[in-house]
Amino acid sequence: MRELRYREALREAMLEEMERDERIFLMGEEVGHYQGAYKVSEGLLDKFGERRVIDTPIAEAGFAGVGIGAAMAGLRPIIEFMTWNFSFVAFDQIISNAAKVHQMSAGAIQVPIVFRGPNGAAKQVASQHSHSSAPFYTHIPGLYVIQPSTPRDAKGLLKSAIRSNNPIIFLEGETLYGVKGEVPDEGVEELIPIGQSRLARPGTDCTIVTWGRPYYTVLAAAEKLGAEGIECEVIDPRTLRPLDTALMVQSVKKTNRCVVVHEHWPYGGPGAEIVDRLQREAFDYLDAPLERVTGLDVPMPYALNLEDQVLPTEERVIDAVKRVSYAK
Amino acid sequence: MMVIRRFEEEAARNYAKGKIGGFLHLYIGQEAIAVAAAEVLENRDYVFQTYRDHGTALARGMSANAAMAELFGKDTGCSRGLGGSMHFFDVERNFLGGWGIVGGHLALAAGTAFKSKYMGEDRVTACFFGDGSTNIGGFHEAMSLAGLWKLPVVFICENNQYAMGTPLERTSPLKDLSIKGEGYGMVGDRFEGHDVEVVQKHVAEAVDRARTGGGPTFVEILTYRFRGHSMSDPAKYRSRTELEQKKQQDPIVVVRERLLGLDVDENTLDDIDLEVDEEIDAAVRFADESAPARQDVMMSTVLAPETDS
Question: What secondary structure does DSSP assign to A180-240, as a single string?
């Protein structure tokens, strides 16, 4: 193992896959000459040239659609949204076209495409640039939705996503690009299967399900709770559609309580879906109501003190764990 | 053209009988365009159409059986009953849909054209849409990228004068839509669409341009639909006089008169009509007798299999 930053892990995944398969190309705003708005694609233009690393005008609906059409005809595009906030102007392309054509054509047409880019709040970028986008896309049959928390998952899942025959929503963490973590050594290929949860921290007293940016908030909170004698088991679903609840159910059967922590708004979405499934699949094992710690149900404010209140905090996680544990 | 005309008339009849559900948009009056374009295009070329897609699919070579069975929601339909009137597909003939969101399929067409260029293939994409599509963002973004990258695509605007029930003069400040092509660095063309030979000549020029690396063309074809926007539309927004006047230019009447003028025997043409009648009657029987759409196909086609990627 070696240490890589999250952005470097993503870059390696694209580089390795593009070397393997000429049908793969990267398209988006500033992905080439500018080297990526967040430098994820740095160096790829030099390596693969303008044929396969393609700068676009600011026209998300246009280039998302071009990607889908190219995928329908047999190419395997990676479409970068500079941020997922801008995917909303391409929403129709993803929902009405990418997610539908395989079934609409009775399976005759496949859409092997990856839409990727940074998702969620960054720091003080305010209302229109802070969407945690998973709920919009997890609602749609015909899509896979992946949101990796660590560099290793980012690389292994992006490689699997690129090899998939289906449209993939790949949500990267805007604040996670600089995070360092262990990634398999060069030459060691790891494909992490889509739709598998991961045990991030073993524990016995309370299950916490979390992903994305709050993953790190939860791990820090779990350390503090451990010092107080409450050992949390942390599970990262990694893929939000399809959702693998097996590990969560197994854990809840042991801990008898669970808190789900996510950045997206509380109304619906994968957070609510997980709670719904756990109360049915582990009903007899629960000693407390399932709790959620979510982004607050408001558009993201600009002021830093308010933004800090909107996003899940260690304190709110600790409070929730204590509530379901009936501890003070 | 007769196959399309009779097919559409029979579809309308069976819609009234309750055999066909949902939305049904007929191509009656516009037949010359689909037929002329099909004549020009090769089987390897990609074709996209809006929800008014029956005529284009039939012209492309889809059987009346597969088309009618799709309208009836049957497993033998071209989309196995999962698509319906608006979502015809026939990948063997590279007919890539029947799309239901106005302007949403133009970028897909730019996408298949992108693929042709990327792979160095000699394949053109033809993308059909209506005058109503030319105001929505999807149109402009697709045109932007196709023009910028000089993609081998022909954008064919079938200007039937009405965006659903709203006439062109109330949706566009321009009377001549073809000049929009200029804004995206592509050639524009504009002509009447009731004479199949005229359409063929103009579309051939655009297809040749795309095939020989000359980039995209924006083709505006002036046409007219004799029916309402869909079956639920009595078309009260236009006058009887206007309709009757346009029917003087019925593309089928035009071609029939030309053939008679070329000393083609009237009986020969009547025989063709009879043959077509039989074909369409058979298609209705086939659709009626076919097995219903299948639940297992519905469930198994939500996602593509993950083999041989």
Answer: EEEEPPTT----PPTT--EEEE--SSEEEEE-STHHHHHHHHHHHHHHTT--EEEEE--EE
